[in-house]
Amino acid sequence: MQTQILPVNARSLALAKEILLAGGLVAFHTETVYGLGADARNDEAVRSVFAVKGRPADNPLIAHVHPDYDISRIVDGEPPYAAALRRAFLPGPLTMVYPSKGKVSRFVSCGLDTLSVRVPASPAAQAFLRAADIPVVAPSANLSKHVSPVTAQHVYDDFAGKIPLILDGGRCEGGIESTVLDCTGPVPQILRAGLVTREMIAAVAGDCGVYHMKEGEKPKSPGMAYKHYSPRCRTALFAAEEGALAEYAREEASGGTPYLLCTEQTARRHPGLRVLSLGETPEEMAANLYARLREGERCATELVAVLPEARGGVMDGVLNRLTRACGGTVNET
Q1: Prediction pTM value
Q2: Per-residue b or e along 239-276, where b marks 16 or more CB atoms closer than 10 Å to that residue's CB
Q3: Which domains does the chain have, with CATH numbers?
């Protein structure tokens, strides 16, 4: 199979719709990361998403729709706070989990009676979703466990010869996946942190919890289980700069090529080292994280990461992704 990368225009959108309706896969730009899209109503198309990615069969997918799509066609009601949140944050990087009407493939939610729905803000995504005018399931367009893609080239690197079309909308400016919010109870609960923060949600809904998955429980949302976002090189994450510098020195002394993954403030203190800077603000760190991890796997034998000091808000999502990318362990020294 030949994989085409095409700009978003009338011709490529017509081709994308044709591929989708025939049960094929199309990768497309969103404001967070690129998605691997399939017709949410088609069992075989949805199953092919899991197969092509190598995705665990119990990891639910998100249905993407355009801003004018009537979600009451696929979800079974919503509490008043959910309607207020939709008005406040959509289109945008927020996925909302509702009771499902069962109008999409049973494989989308992996046996759960809920459905995750997202309305992307990206003009490229909206053009694609309007052209299709169907719910499109779309996990991140990368091989399972690999770093999420923020450029069309990243998608091509993982899926060349495996999917027919990548719609190139440029680099994704948000950089980490959408916040996933459970809207099936009296109080919304964050299942996956992202760019729409707990504080932002609580300001609109009056309250917001954070859900912690119990051992042995089936994931309610993408990103709640399994190793994610991992570059194809060794990684180590340190809470303290001193520990990271010592690891960097050990790797270099053994003949390796370490790179320090850190904030811009830390990078400026070490001009003589090989550094991949995440930036200065939480928003910059979110936007740069996956691109830096992809850069690092091309040039480093080991990525030695320093845990940023900032906490709360957008940093909850950044720290979640960074920790998972480094195997889930933070070295204290």
Answers
A1: 0.93
A2: eebebbbebbeebbeeeeebbbbbbeebbeebeebebb
A3: 4-210 (3.90.870.10), 234-325 (3.40.50.11030)
